[in-house]
Design a protein that fits this description.
- This protein is an alpha+beta fold.
- The protein has 7 helices and 5 strands; from the N terminus they run H-H-H-H-E-H-H-E-E-E-E-H.
- Helix 1 runs antiparallel to helix 2 and helix 1 packs parallel to helix 3.
- The protein binds FE2/S2 (inorganic) cluster.
């Protein structure tokens, strides 16, 4: 049943874009927004609708960090690693996050509680280190502040 729904959803998203291969990135974002991640089945459907090879679709998915191949954790933590945030300690924050959350960058914890991702600029450069948690943006995030924000998000 879920597979049928996914197939219909992918078909509609692709159709809304006129099945244009040039819209692949946008289509992937929209499908991920609907489903939460990009399963093998939806990637196969997208390739079919756009008349692309599965390798072409997989190539684009693996190029962009924002695309998820597995469901995201309940709490999604994105840490900016771009230049302005590097200058104010995002590497230390990243190390702290991987240790305290027990999850690597780009991974989801085994119980599915938290996903940790790196991004390159959240548009909050003057207030780095910048972090986004479940879509909410935070600035001047210290390791202690990160712990508090994650606890708050998980409660
Ligand atoms: S460089 Fe980190 S928010 Fe822009």
């Amino acid at each position: 049943m879920q597979e049928l729904d996914d197939k219909k959803m992918v078909f509609k998203v692709c159709q809304d874009h006129g099945n244009r291969p040039a819209d692949l990135v946008q289509i992937l974002h929209e499908v991920q927004a609907h489903k939460g991640f990009l399963s093998d089945e939806v990637l196969r459907e997208i390739a079919s609708c756009l008349n692309l090879s599965r390798a072409e679709v997989h190539g684009v998915v693996s190029f962009y960090h924002d695309f998820r191949r597995v469901p995201a954790g309940k709490t999604v933590v994105k840490i900016c690693l771009a230049e302005a945030c590097q200058a104010v300690g995002c590497d230390e924050l990243k190390e702290h996050a991987t240790q305290t959350l027990s999850v690597g960058l780009g991974e989801t914890s085994s119980g599915g509680a938290v996903s940790l991702q790196h991004v390159y600029c959240l548009g909050n450069c003057a207030l780095g280190p910048a972090v986004m948690i479940n879509g909410n943006l935070y600035g001047r995030v210290t390791p202690e502040k990160l712990d508090a924000l994650v606890s708050e998000a998980e409660s």
